[in-house]
Amino acid sequence: MEKLTRRLKWTAVSAAGVLLALGGLATRVPPMAGSGPATGALQGAQDTLAVAELIRRSGNALVADETVKGLSIGFLDLDGERVVADFGVSEGGSAYRIASVSKIFLAMAVMQLVEEGRLRLDAPLSAILPSFTVRSRYPESEPITIRHLLTHTSGLSRDRIAGMQSYCPLDDRHLLSYLAGHYQALPAGYRHSYSNPGFELLGYAVEEASDRPFTDYVRERILEPLDLGSTTYVDQAPTALPRAGTFAPSHDDPVEEMPIRYTAAGGLTSSVPDLLRVLEMLLSGGRYGGRAVLDSASVAAMWSWQNREVALDTDVRLGLAWFLEDLPPPFEGRIVSHGGGSLYSNAMVMLVPEHGLGVVVLAGTAGSYPAVAGLARKVLLHALETKTGQQVEESTVSWPHPVPWSAAESARVHGRFVTATSVLDIDGEGAEPVVRTGGTTLPLRLFEDGSFTYADAFRLHIDSIGDEAILFMTNPAGTMPIGHGLTEYGPVPGAWASAQGEYHLTGTCPEGETVFYERIQVAVRDGYLRVVLHPGHQPRTLLGVPPMAYVLIPVDDQAATMAGFGRYPGETVYRRTTGAGTEEILFAGLRFVRESGVKPAPGPP
After folding, report:
1. Residues forming a β-bridge with 268
2. Rounded mean pLDDT of 63-90?
C-alpha cells in the first residue's frame, strides 16, 4: 500500500476512498520513506478510519471542555497509513515545545557516537568530561557512567531549578561548576531518580566526543538526515511551521513561555509530522530513506530493559532514555514511550515496536499532561486492537486474604520508617500492631502475603535491600519504594532549630524567570526537621500544585537531606549565614532569604 499521511481538519466524518476526507479536504503530503518489515497492516481505509474517528472524538472532547486550547495528534502504522489531526491550531499544523521528549534525540546522538567508538556506555563520565566532579557522601558508590545518566540511575539531583526557565541565559556548561559544589543525592546505580542535569551532562559529552556544539551535531546528524524542518532548539532559527500558541486553562489569550535553559535535556521544538518520521525511522531499525541513521543494535539497546538488576526499581522499567512497560493481556510485547512537559506545553510519543505502531500527541496548554499521555495510550491500544482483532482484557486488582497477626509477624514489622513527607512509627509490641503518624494512631491489618495496611487504597510491605530496611507501597498503579528504616534521629541540631521560619526567594533573573518555588518554611514538628516548599504563583494557579512538606535528616549544622523516595530523594538543603548576617536557605540552586522579624509559622507545615 502506498504510504500516505492524512492531515485532518475535523468537522464531520465522510470517507472518500483512502484519503480519509473527514469533513473537509484532506491533504496528501509526501510519503515517508524507508519502512521495515511488515507485521500485518491495518486492513485498509476502514480500519484506519476507525482509528481516525477515535482521534476526532477524543480531540474534539478535549478542546470542548477546555482541557486543551491547541492540540495535534499523529498516528502511524509502519505497514500502512499515517493520520495527522490538528485541533485549535493553524491550518497545516504547528510546532510545539516538546520538553523532555528532547531526550530521545540526545539518546540517539549518544548511540551514534557509541557506534563510532567515540563514547562508551559503561565508561566513567569523567573519562570524556575530565572537569566533571560532584561531592558525595557515598564512598561505596561506583563512578557515574553514561549508562547511569541515560537510565536516570546516576544519583544526581533532579534539577538545578535556578534559571531553568528564564530570559537570562546561563553560563556555558554551567552545571559543571554547580555540581562541583553540591552533593550527589543517591549512590550511582541505587535506584531510578529522574535527573535533568544528568541529561544535560550527556549533551556536554556529545560535544566533547564530536568536537562540535551539541545543537550543531544534532542538526547535522539527526535533523537534516531525517528532513525534520519543523524541529529546532528553542533559541535557534524558526521552524518550517508556525509555533503553536501556549495557553493557561480557561483563558483565551495565548501567553509567552520563557526559554528552557536545559538545551539537551528539554530544549527542542517539533511537530507531529516530524516526530512521526522519527518514530518511523526507529521502528524501521534505524533506517530512513535508504540510509542508516542508527544501527539496529542501537535501537534495540535503547528499547531493552536496562535496570533489571536495580532492586529498588520494582515497577519502573528503563531503556536508554526510554520508558518501557508490558502490553496488557492478551498481547505480547512492549509499550515504549517518553513524555515531556513544561509550564505550558506537553508532549507524548508512544510506540509498540512488535506491531509497528506509533502515536504522537502534542498540546500547548498548562496542566494537560495527564490528558496528553492518556490519549496517546488510548489511541495506541485501540489501533492495536483494530490491527490484531483482539481486545485488551479487563484488568482486575485483587488483594490477598486478611490473616490474624502472629507474634513473629508483629515483630517483623516493628520499627520506624521515614517517607518523603512523614514518619511512621510501627508498634508491633502489642497484641495488635498499630502505626503512629502525625499524632494519629491507626490499627494495622495483615494479609497472607505478609503485606499490611492502615488504609483501603494501598498495601505496605518491608524488604531488606543490602543493609537497609525499605518500606514499599503497592496500589493499582504498581509497587514502589516510599521510605526507609530510621534507627536514630535527633535531637535536631541547635543551628537548624534556630533556623525555623519563613524564607523568600531572591536573586532571580531581572528580565524574568519562572518562579517554581517562591518561599519556603523551615520548622521542627514532633521532633523532626521539615521544610515546606511553596510553589510560585504560576505553577500554583495553573497546575493546582499545593505546598509540600518534606522531612529532612540533618547531616550537620549547615546541611540536611530530604528523606524517603519522593520528588527530591536524598537532595541536600543548605543553611548559611552571610558575612552581613543574612540568614539563607539554599536548595536546587535557589536562594531563599529570611526577612527580619519573620517568626516560625504556627501549626504543622
Report:
1. 233
2. 88
